[in-house]
Fold this sequence. Notes:
By secondary structure, the protein is of the alpha/beta class. The protein has helices at residues 3-15, 29-36, 38-41, 49-55, 85-95, 110-120, 156-169, 184-196, 203-221; strands at residues 74-79, 101-107, 126-130, 142-147, 170-181, 222-228, 235-241. It has 9 helices and 7 strands, in the order ααααβαβαββαβααββ. Helix 8 packs antiparallel against helix 9 (203-221). It is globular. S-adenosylmethionine binds at residues 40-43, 46-47, 79-82, 85-86, 106-109, 112, 132-134, 148-150.
Amino acid sequence: MHHRSLCLTIILLFSVNTTCLSKESGFLSFWMGVLRNPEQVGAIAPGSPFLAKEISKHIDTVGMQDSFEINQPVRILEAGGGCGALTADIEKRLAHIDKSYLLDVIEIDPDYCEVLVAKFSHNPNIHIHCADVSTWNPGYQYDVIISSLPFTSLPSDLVIRIVEQFKKLAKKEGFISYFEYILLADVKSAYLGVKELFVEEHPKKEFEKKVRILSDFRRDFGIESKHVLLNVMPAQIHHLKMY
Ligand SMILES: C[S@@+](CC[C@H](N)C(=O)[O-])C[C@H]1O[C@@H](n2cnc3c(N)ncnc32)[C@H](O)[C@@H]1O
């Protein structure tokens, strides 16, 4: 094999979170979901351990905020659980904090939900909900929201509803972390610009509306953005803090 192809293969293998390929997760279930509903899944591979580490890092600081209620469990929301690649890392991270916790995992795809239930039913602190996060209303707020929702491939009105939902669901001083693929927005915008020349609708305008909603969200609450290159595809993680 050519040297460059070998390096690429090794990077890809490191970047794929192998928990999603294991037998108990339902072999190849992630890719079956991609084939079933590519727009809703919005990815070609589960998040890597590097992505999981960066996107869940604010769990470690929970409890340091003035607003934290001592007698309450730490509440975490994972939006878009998929087949649990990030959930497994979040669970490991939560095992190291010295507080009780509750992790709500929201996933819209019923087949992925089955995988999640099979993988995490051993842990009474993890609750799997097969639901659309834009209508999720648990009656309490979260210290940390971790989202791997594919915003760039979802319709803009849904993105607006989810952003508003996150604002409502996060506690004051709570964290919201989400990711997007590096350069994907630019490539998609250029492609839609060309497409607009041939169709009557305005797909580029619709797409740019979504990009604007997210950049306004970051302008208002963003605290940090980090690149994670070891992921299929390289991603940028945005961390926001509510006030
Ligand atoms: C990019 S995948 C990430 C999966 C997993 N967290 C990982 O990193 O491998 C996005 C997930 O979000 C789910 N999803 C999309 N829209 C959703 C919605 N409105 N509510 C809940 N989950 C949703 C998809 O079904 C998919 O499992």
